[in-house]
Specification:
The chain has helices at 17-22, 28-33, 68-87, 118-133, 159-164, 168-178, 233-242, 305-319, and strands at 98-108, 146-157, 186-191, 197-199, 214-217. By secondary structure, the chain is of the alpha/beta class. Bound molecules: calcium ion (CA) (2 copies) and zinc ion.
């Protein structure tokens, strides 16, 4: 029987306590091994984060979650870069979308545990494309203009990588020895982690290109064994981060919260799919169906137009 997963939020128990206390984020892995991404590692958690997206009893925070202070700096940097792009007469690039190559790394452990079949990978890519095309809630969800195509599947039998990616130096070792492509290539590693997944942000690429990409738990793929998280939407959520989105509960019940105008503010993350949830007295119900909340896979069905704009801006600023 599998050990209980702790949701998107758990930080690996092997991470040094100083990192646990200090971070909401920033690649705990990097603390000991390489320079942390600018603007992230020195920030302390602000306590605004809540329940994990995960199995019953889960707690903690998603790896690489960013403090509000760091988020504000990253928001400003993005705004400045977008202004530069416009000033250079290249504003059209801010809405262009992209066809993104995906390199899917299937890491397996002892006796082949963690194997993800080619058919499941194809299904997973289909789920990703459906989310980014907005077809899960036609007329409401945004078509972001981004599509994903599987460029390569790489298979690695390495029980250390498989079971210890939550450990920063192992994460770094695995990624640096396997990552393919440039800032515009999506590398996905499926492994066995404590949570469901974690991602790097676009602005971190320049300082830590070898770590760029998305890690998911192998049980979160379509048809996987992660109860309530077995439709492959974990990857959609994590790729949202990889494209520059915050959680919809980033910043809590504030007018700016996640820096996206059309996602109503929420005071805390959502668990399950509670219709009508309204955790913040600012206008709008909580965006429980948004891929960037912590709801169940079945509940997820949309990115908003504002999130699409932000992803397109971040793409042009950092990955194009
Ligand atoms: Ca918002
Ligand atoms: Ca509200
Ligand atoms: Zn997340």
């Amino acid at each position: 029987m599998a050990l209980p997963k702790l949701g998107r939020a758990l930080i690996a128990p092997t991470v040094a306590s100083v990192a646990l206390a200090g971070f909401v984020l920033a690649q705990p892995a990097l603390v000991a091994t390489t320079a942390a991404p600018a603007g992230a590692a020195e920030e302390c958690a602000d306590g605004a984060f809540s329940a994990a997206r995960g199995k019953p009893g889960s707690s903690g925070q998603e790896r690489n979650e960013v403090s509000q202070a760091a988020a504000k700096r990253m928001n400003k940097e993005l705004r400045d870069k977008v202004a530069e792009i416009r000033a250079d007469g290249e504003g059209a690039s801010l809405t262009a979308g992209a066809s993104i190559p995906v390199v899917f790394h299937v890491v397996t452990g002892r006796k082949g545990v963690g194997n993800v079949s080619d058919a499941t990978i194809a299904e997973q890519i289909d789920v990703l494309n459906a989310g980014f095309a907005g077809v899960e809630n036609p007329g409401v969800a945004a078509n972001t203009g981004f599509t994903f195509h599987l460029q390569q599947t790489k298979r690695w039998n390495n029980s250390r990588w498989f079971s210890r990616t939550d450990t920063p130096n192992v994460e770094s070792e695995m990624k640096s020895q396997t990552r393919v492509g440039d800032a515009g290539t999506l590398n996905v590693w499926s492994v066995d982690i404590g949570g469901l997944g974690f991602a790097t942000f676009p602005s971190w690429y320049s300082s830590d290109p070898e770590l760029d990409g998305v890690v998911i738990d192998y049980t979160s793929v379509p048809g996987g064994s992660a109860t309530n998280f077995d439709k492959g939407k974990t990857l959609t959520h994590e790729v949202g981060h990889w494209m520059g989105l915050w959680h919809t509960f980033q910043g809590g019940c504030t007018t700016t919260n996640d820096e996206v105008a059309d996602t109503p503010a929420q005071s805390s993350s959502t668990s399950g799919c509670p219709a009508g949830r309204d955790s913040c007295n600012l206008p709008g119900l909580d965006p429980i169906h948004n891929y960037m909340d912590y709801s169940y896979d079945d509940c997820y069905n949309q990115f908003t137009p504002g999130q699409s704009t932000r992803m397109n801006n971040a793409w042009a600023a950092y990955r194009a």
